[in-house]
Structure formats: C-alpha cells, structure tokens
Amino acid sequence: GAGVSQTPSNKVTEKGKYVELRCDPISGHTALYWYRQSLGQGPEFLIYFQGTGAADDSGLPNDRFFAVRPEGSVSTLKIQRTERGDSAVYLCASSSGGPKYFGPGTRLTVL
Amino acid sequence: GQQLNQSPQSMFIQEGEDVSMNCTSSSIFNTWLWYKQEPGEGPVLLIALYKAGELTSNGRLTAQFGITRKDSFLNISASIPSDVGIYFCAGGDYGGSQGNLIFGKGTKLSVKP
Question: Which of A13, B88, B96, B102 might form a disulfide with A17, Cβ 3.0–4.6 angstroms?
C-alpha cells in the first residue's frame, strides 16, 4: 500500500496478558518510529529504528515494552503483563530522510 | 514526557473565517512540523519547517518557524467544514527524520457551516 499500515486496528485484552502490535512502514523507508497517544494528548515517543537496530529507545516506559524490526521493514511492538494504564492508541510512523508519516494506529484497551 | 505549549486548546469558528494557532517551547528545535488528526486516524503531515524564520504555505495553510527556534504558528485562511479536526505541532532536534518528535497537546478546531 501507499501508506503506513498497522494491525490490528483495535485490540482488547485483559490485564496481565501479552500483546503484539504490528507496523508495516512505507516501502523503502529506513526509519520507523513507535508513539503512544493517550486520550486528549499528543503522541509521545516510544522507540525509533534505523534499519534493523533500535537507534533510540529512551521513550519506552519500562521493561514490559519491547520492539523489534528483524528485517528492517515490518516492526512489532510487544507489551508483556499489560496494565490498565497501557490503554492508548499506539501509532507507528516511517520516514526516509524527511518528515515522519503516521499510520492509523492500534487502539489498545486493557480491561 | 515533555510536551510543547500549544494554544488555543479549542476553537469554534464560522465557515469562511481565518484561524491562527501557535506553539511555544522552552527548548530550541531545528524542525517544526504541523499535523492534522481526524477521529480514528493517525496524524497527517500538513507542513514541515526546517529553517528559523521560514514561512511555508500549503494551499490555504501557512506556517512559520519562529526566529528564536522556540515557536511556530499555523494559519488557516477561509476555513471550510472539512478543516475540522485536531491540529498538532511537533518539534524535532534533527532534520525531522532522526530522533523523536515532541508534540503539543493539540488544537481542536470546529467549523460551523
């Protein structure tokens, strides 16, 4: 597709469960970013990949959060032992030496 | 986390009116970006600014990168109903591609036909 795609669009899980959120960046974009957006707030940075490696993971809130990008394209954000406070929209963005283009997000609800 | 000061928080205007919103920061940024977000969608890039003092237009939208590098504004002229949405400013340390962006809390725009 032409833009960044994210799956699933919605995810409802129970507290304590493990979830994986997937991002397909724009083809050819080497940089990939994960952001988290809570209700009424702007997006907050989580992690940035340049190719396969995490260039900056300073935004990950704790060690329950982890992200991978094994082949330098698709990325997966993994959240262990989910908590109700993890409920938010998780946005993925990609870029190719210029501005970031965002996907539609995955709305995560932890019950 | 750190956020920019974006104002106003919300605006209710009549179709055809001009709109102005701004963003300020205590930190210097090398890049300012303006995004629009509609319900259930991710932010869509409107304008990117890379140089202090730069003034850039995109149709009815005009944005400026402040001389001090600590602020930016966005103007929308002759608003129309499809301008409705939340507008976010974002500041970056690098050329917009490396590193992370710091976002404002958004300006919610409502347009009355």
Answer: A13
CB contact under 8 A, B99 and A31: no
Q: What is the pLDDT along chain B (113 residues), one digit of tens a residue?
A: 566 899 999 999 999 999 999 999 998 998 999 999 999 899 999 999 999 999 999 999 999 999 999 999 999 999 999 999 999 999 987 644 456 789 999 999 999 98
CB A9 within 8 A of CB A106: yes
Q: Which of residues 58-97 of A touch B (CB under 8 A)?
A: 58-59, 91, 93, 95-97
B40 vs A: CB within 8 A: yes
| Residues sharing a CB contact under 8 Å with residue A49, sequence separation 6 or more, in sequence order | A31, A32, A33, A55, A67, A69, A72, A75
Tell me whether residues B101 and A40 touch, CB distance under 8 A: no
Burial B54-90 (b: 16+ CB within 10 A, else e): bebeeeebbbbbbeebbbbbbebeebeeebebbbbbb
Nearest-CA distance A14 → chain B (Å): 22
pLDDT per residue over A9-54, tens digit each? 999 999 999 999 999 999 999 999 999 999 999 999 999 999 999 9
Residue B64 CA neighbour count, 13 Å, CB half: 11
The pairing of strands B19-24 and B10-14 is unpaired
Say whether B43 and A50 touch across the interface (CB within 8 A): no
